[in-house]
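Database export, one record per block. Field names are fixed; values are copied verbatim from the stored entry.
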Amino acid sequence: MVFGRGRDQQIPGKPGPDHRAIEAKVDEEMHGLVTQLTNEITFHMRECGLSRAELAARMGVSPGRISQILGGGENLTLRTLAALATALDARFDFELSSLKTPDEYTSRRTAEPAPAANHHSFPRAQHQQGASRRH
C-alpha cells in the first residue's frame, strides 16, 4: 500500500491508465502512418514499373532491406524516407489536420464531432483527386 498519494497520483516508474491509453492511441496512429507510407511506396513502384531489387539498387541497399521497409514492421527514419523519395524520384506530401473542430477548443458547448477520416485514411482515388487539384 502506498501512503501519502492521492488517487490520481501515479507510482513513479509505473504507467497509469492514462499513459496506457495514450500509448495505445500512439500505436494505432503509428500503424496507420506506416500503412499509408508502405502503400504509397508500393503504389509508386507499380506506377513506375520498379521492382524491389531495382529500388534497392537505387538506394544502395539490399533487396532484403527493401522487404523490411515495405513489410511495415519498423519505425522508418526521416533519412530512410528521404532516401526512398530520392530513389523513386518523388516526394512525400504530409498533412496534419485536427481531429477536433475549432468549437471544441474555444467553447464548452457541444460541437459537432470532427470527421473520422484524416489525410492518411483517404482511399487512393480520393487522394489522387486531391493531388490533381493542387497541381
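Remark 1: The chain has two domains: 17-92, 93-135.
Remark 2: DSSP finds six helices and no strands in the chain.
End of record.
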